[in-house]
Amino acid sequence: MKCPDWTFLSNYGHVLVCLAENPGVRLRDIADRVGITERTAQRLITQLDEAGILTRVKLGRRNSYYIDTSAHLRHPIEEHCTVGELLKLVLSPARVRRLEALKADLDEQGTV
Asked: Is the model's pLDDT at 5 over the cut of 90?
């Protein structure tokens, strides 16, 4: 089956899904999975960070990423939905539970 030239999610959405699946994922792996350059992956993560959608947490030499699942989507058509609601649609139930547990742990620790 031919791969379509378009997808329902933007590269921002794809990057968020990668980070939700593995908060410690390397930029190189995000870039490979999404089909973008490492520089583009870095730029998208920086913009998501600046928008308050995610926060970088330095763990040793690597970054881990906390996604604010309560943040609302930005376009007026879907601004009534949260990032968490979007991720629940595309992640497996096990990954959603893991994401929620990580959020609860970070909130409890006051890390973010």
From this structure: no
